[in-house]
TrEMBL record:
InterPro entries in the cross-refs: 4Fe4S_Fe-S-bd, 4Fe4S_Fe_S_CS, PSI_iron-sulfur_center
UniProt cross-references to PROSITE patterns, sorted A to Z: 4FE4S_FER_1, 4FE4S_FER_2
Protein name (record): 4Fe-4S ferredoxin-type domain-containing protein
GO molecular function: 4 iron, 4 sulfur cluster binding; metal ion binding
Origin species: endosymbiont of Escarpia spicata
UniProt superkingdom: Bacteria
Length: 360
């Protein structure tokens, strides 16, 4: 009886750790042919399954490590554990411990410290947390893979912060005993409980606070995740951002598919107010690296550069009228197709005279 009860409790706790996908947020719900496989590639146990028709989770293989959470470009996978935030020696500090470290029954324990990604760290930084206290197990021998993603994320964030003349985020890797001593000292000084019961009592409130923060950061107020570039300090322009969309003007045919597919308005059509001239406006800070623009581009004109300063912010378009069907169209001014007298549809079909029958 006791053994069966313990097994039921263990199974219930495992299910509580397993991720959930927010409805309507995954790129596969936005575009059936999306090529994103970030969660599949990150999972050390091959628990995520992606085929031509569905993205699913094999719960029998998932151990709740959370490594899929930070790699999802749209933040569609729900985070169930958060770092413990408090004041330590007068500074806002986040305490973070791997579940395989030698600590227990305290706040700040998550399945794997590397499930904390760039968006999580930037949200902490935006709230004033610039110090992270970490303790973890033996990552080199961990069956979840020899990963050091958290360290890499901190390094990349500090590169972007330095480019903005902002103070860096400091990471302190401690032994389990030292980490626990610091946490207990902090809890005593602040009059806080450190047991998990206090964490569970505040869990719902923490989740609501996090959602409201995301809503405030979101430019359109919808339920999309906030791209990391929008969370960065913005005192300086022309700074390094995580993801930079780039359009090859010699390949682009002006179909506007990228503009229609982008969920964060990183790519937009902008009126220049000069004889109704139009241009593609690229706002790299809004890019989440979802890849929908790349998937939707029929000529392969779009790529996304990582961790760089944008140098392409506007692409002027030239207007023309198709001599075959009479439809107005546009292409980049620098495009080799700029002198073409056929729109992109008539340019690839030979039934110009009947084309009006299938056009709006």
């Amino acid at each position: 009886m006791g053994s069966n009860f313990r097994n039921l409790i263990s199974q219930a706790l495992l299910e509580l750790k397993q991720p959930e996908v927010g409805e309507g947020k995954c790129v596969h719900s936005l575009m059936a042919t999306a090529s994103c496989s970030s969660c599949v590639d990150a999972c050390p146990r091959q628990a995520w399954i992606l085929d031509d028709s569905i993205l699913g989770l094999d719960t029998s293989n998932c151990d709740g490590c959370g490594l899929c959470v930070p790699v999802c470009p749209e933040g569609a996978i729900q985070r169930l554990n958060e770092p413990h935030q408090c004041h330590w020696k007068g500074r806002d500090t986040a305490f973070l411990a791997c579940e395989r470290a030698m600590v227990s029954d305290v706040e700040g324990i998550i399945p794997c410290i590397h499930s904390i990604g760039i968006r999580d760290l930037l949200l902490l930084y935006r709230k004033g947390t610039k110090d992270i206290m970490i303790t973890h197990g033996d990552c080199a021998r961990c069956d979840r893979g020899n990963v050091h993603r958290l360290e890499h994320a901190v390094i990349r964030i500090n590169r972007m912060l330095k480019d903005r003349n902002a103070s860096p985020m400091r990471q302190h890797v401690l032994s389990s005993n030292k980490w626990l001593d610091n946490l207990k000292t902090t809890a005593t000084a602040n009059g806080q409980e450190i047991g998990r019961r206090s964490f569970l009592r505040r869990a719902l409130g923490m989740a609501v606070t996090e959602r409201s923060t995301e809503d405030k950061l979101s430019a359109n107020g919808q339920a999309w995740s906030v791209p990391p570039g929008q969370i960065l300090p913005s005192e300086k322009t022309d700074s390094m951002v995580p993801f930079v969309p780039v359009i090859d003007t010699n390949l682009c045919n002006g179909c506007d598919a990228c503009v229609r597919l982008c969920p964060h308005d990183a790519l937009m059509i902008d009126m220049c107010n000069v004889l109704d001239a139009k241009s593609y406006k690229i706002t790299a800070e809004n890019c989440s690296n979802c890849g929908l623009c790349i998937d939707g581009c029929e000529v392969g004109a779009i790529s996304i550069n990582m961790w760089t300063i944008p140098d392409q912010m506007r692409i002027n378009l030239v207007q023309a009228r198709c001599t075959a069907c009479g439809a107005d169209y546009h292409v980049p001014k620098e495009s080799e197709k700029g002198e073409n007298t056929l729109c992109r549809v008539c340019g690839i079909v030979n039934h110009y005279r009947n084309l009006y029958q299938v056009m709006d």
